[in-house]
Design goal:
The complex is a heterodimer of chains A (423) and B (175). Chain A has 423 residues and is an all-alpha fold. In chain A, 65% of the residues lie in helices and 1% in strands. Classes of the chains: A mainly alpha (423), B alpha+beta (175). The complex binds protoporphyrin IX containing FE (HEM) and FE2/S2 (inorganic) cluster.
């Protein structure tokens, strides 16, 4: 807030470095005095958790890479070698495999948080875009990582997903052969996937940097969705949010540790402990849980090209969300119609996730189609909602709302805000 | 633009030409650099070289199928029964999403040779299953008939017939 001048030090070494590379004032601005809305709830913990998970994936991944062999004849065995022979290899691999799941869980909550509180709206559209780009890069990274152990699910998942591109008119087959480096998923595919799986997390790291840069321009949104109007609306990031983030990390670590030590294969597929066989497809192939809603949308459409288009559309429609939503009010707290639709959308995503994991037959097909229709209807209804919805009255400022809700009295608005603040 | 560049005595069109020429050359250079980076991902020469196999059919009894591996993909070779051939040949073309006669798909009617890769997203269909008693793909539910033609489900095309020639009565070369 007060610019570069707010950082002071008497330490000679610090001053020497600071004069040449102002890194101390940079950290001070970004993580210490950084003014943060005083009313953030726990849904705002997910960003720092996602950052931690990216680092965990990179550290465990680099170490796995020291023992793993990206060769069609050796990959499966080298993964088992990590599990059985390498010191703590089982721990590192389970951390990395379940870490991927925890990473996605956190990022999904982070995205739903953004949707509920309207964080994608002006002036945060680019921040939102960078987030979606990170999400897409994560999907690519996790998909290629899952191919590496070269089990049956690895192989057939890779086959089905790369074949999505064969739906492209005319060029389809050429693109797929280019992705494979052959006539089927094979050694060249595995080798390049390893190379890219190693690379992409660092690309993600760079995009996270841009994401945070954009964040720090207009600062965090908040549960009320109203702008910061002055210093009375904010508190410094340190110690208030450093402590809150650390507390969140503790709770998160307990959940992660439970998964890691008590149910490390809960989210995995037993078929992936069978070595890849290019001549036999497992009877029931499913992607990892975090891809299931999109997989359900792919299968809901009984036409190859349109199924693929619908699947990509369900992801890319997030980019236009800031313009589809025409309401000026950000937070769903003040938008009764949007709030209902949001929860319907949330449930719909869970239903699609469930359907994606079921065989494509009977009633599941019907539910999958309905769920897909609802998914897109949610987005397409937003321009109209913004037009006819009567939002509730916004508080004058963050600080007045906070004081009101903690002063005991208050309006129905204040009461609602209070209940949710504790969430 | 004309004002400011004209002001210091240079000919603006000449300067524009230099910008465009330098930029254009740079773009060509960049494309020349990117091209090898892109095509290196295409199948390499050793992969392209391994492209045909020979199969001995004598051991396959009537009503049996075998799966052989060709270019990393399964190829189904089925010794079809009379009934299967008849059913396949009786289907009117209008019932087929990807119309193709059984005669065009099997050089000798009793031997059906095709790539065992579902034309939807590439799984390997299961033989003698599905609503048409041909092949059924469990991945997303595509049904193929006794000629390997798509009848129902998301797959757009019939199971592909690879190029093959009979070397003699019992041996066939695929690819
Ligand atoms: C965005 C961060 C990352 C995500 C989401 C991710 C995800 C995954 C997933 C889901 C798997 C399959 C796990 C299994 O079922 O066995 C995997 C495997 C692997 N990953 Fe990553 N990864 C990330 C970063 C990295 C990095 C930076 C490296 C560095 C080399 C790496 C190296 C590996 C290796 C060697 C394997 C194969 C061994 C194994 O399957 O456990 N990963 N990754
Ligand atoms: S891959 Fe066969 S139906 Fe989808």
């Amino acid at each position: 807030m007060s610019g570069h001048s707010s950082f002071q030090s008497n330490n000679a070494i610090v001053k020497w470095i600071e004069y040449r590379l102002p890194i101390f004032s940079f950290v001070n601005e970004a993580l210490v005095v950084y003014p943060t809305p005083k009313n953030l709830n726990y849904w705002w913990n997910m960003g720092s958790l996602a950052g931690v998970m990216l680092v965990v994936q990179i550290i465990t991944g680099v170490v796995l890479g020291m023992h793993y062999t990206p060769h069609a004849d050796l990959a499966f065995d080298s993964t088992e070698h990590i599990m059985r022979d390498v010191n703590y290899g089982w721990l590192l691999r389970y951390m990395h495999a379940n870490g991927g799941s925890m990473f996605f869980a956190v990022v999904y909550i982070h995205i739903f948080r953004g949707m509920y509180y309207g964080s994608y709206k002006a002036p945060r559209e680019l921040l939102w875009w960078l987030g979606i780009i990170i999400f897409i890069l994560m999907m690519a990274t996790a998909f290629m990582g899952y191919v590496l152990p070269w089990g049956q699910m690895s192989f057939w998942g890779a086959t089905v997903i790369t074949n999505l591109f064969s739906a492209v008119p005319i060029l389809g087959e050429t693109i797929v052969a280019w992705l494979w480096g052959g006539y089927s998923v094979d050694q060249p595919t595995l080798n390049r996937f390893f190379s890219l799986h190693y690379l992409l997390p660092f690309v993600i790291f760079a995009v996270v940097f841009l994401h945070l840069w954009a964040l720090h321009v207009h600062k965090s949104n908040n549960p009320l969705g109203i702008d910061i109007k002055g210093p009375q609306d904010t508190i410094p990031f340190h110690p208030y949010y450093t402590v809150k983030d650390l507390y969140g990390m503790g709770v998160f670590a307990i959940i992660f540790a439970w998964l890691l030590f008590f149910a490390p294969n809960l989210l995995g597929e037993p078929d992936n402990y069978i070595p890849a066989d290019p001549l036999v497809t497992p009877t029931h192939i499913v992607p990892e849980w975090y891809f299931l809603p999109f997989y359900a949308i792919l299968r809901a459409i009984p036409d190859k090209l349109f199924g693929v288009i619908a699947m990509f559309a369900s992801l890319f429609i997030l980019f236009v969300l800031p313009w589809l939503d025409t309401s000026k009010v950000r937070s769903a707290r003040f938008r009764p119609v949007y709030k209902m639709l949001f929860w319907a959308f949330f449930v719909d995503c869970l239903v699609l996730g469930y359907i994606g994991g079921q065989p494509a037959e009977g009633i599941f097909i019907v539910i999958g189609r309905l769920g897909t229709a609802l998914y897109f209807l949610f987005f397409l209804s937003l321009p109209f909602i913004g037009w006819f919805e009567r939002p509730r009255k916004l508080p004058a400022s963050i600080s007045t709302a906070v004081l009101e809700s903690h002063g005991g009295g208050g309006t129905p608005d204040g009461a609602a805000a209070k209940a949710e603040d504790r969430g | 633009m004309t004002d400011s560049t004209g002001g210091d005595g240079h000919d603006p069109s000449r300067r524009d030409f230099l910008y465009v020429a330098a930029g254009g050359l740079g773009a060509v250079g960049a494309a020349g650099f990117v091209w090898p980076l892109v095509v290196q991902m295409n199948p390499s020469r050793d992969v392209l070289a391994l492209s045909s196999i020979e199969v001995d059919l004598s051991g396959i009894e009537l009503g049996q199928s075998i799966t052989v591996s060709w270019r990393g993909k399964p190829v189904f070779i089925r010794h079809r029964t009379e009934a299967e051939i008849e059913v396949a040949r009786a289907v009117p073309m209008d019932d087929l999403p990807d119309p193709e006669s059984d005669e065009a798909r099997a050089q000798k009617p009793e031997w059906l040779i095709m790539v065992g890769v579902c034309t939807h997203l590439g799984c390997v269909p299961l033989g003698q299953q599905g609503e048409y008693n041909g092949w059924f793909c469990p991945c997303h539910g595509s049904h193929y008939d006794t000629s390997g033609r798509i009848r129902k489900g998301p797959a757009p095309l019939n199971l592909a017939v690879p190029k093959y020639v009979y070397l003699d009565d019992n041996n066939v070369k695929i690819g």
